[in-house]
Amino acid sequence: MMEKPQNWIDWRNYIETGNLFPAFQPVVSIESGLVYGYEVLGRIEHTRNIAGMEKKVESSLGNFFLTYPNKSYSSESFLRLKKSVDEEIRRLAIEKFAREAEPQASLFLNISPSSIFSYMEIINKDLPLTIQLTRKHGINPERIIVEITEERIDGNIEVLKPIIDIYRSEGFRIAVDDVGSESSNLDRIGLFHPDIIKVDLQMIRRSVFSRNFKEILFTLSKLGESLGSSLLFEGIEKEDELYNALNYGSRFLQGYYFSEAKREFIDPTNFKQDLNLSLDKYYRKKTIEIQKLNAWESKIQKSLSTLDLNFISLESQNSIKDFLSNANISFFRLYITDSKGIQVSPNYVKTDDIVSEISEYKGKNWSWRPYFFEHKYKSSQNYIDWVISSVYHDISENTFLKTFSKNLDGGCILFIDVIFD
Question: How many domains is the chain built from?
Answer without folding.
Answer: 2
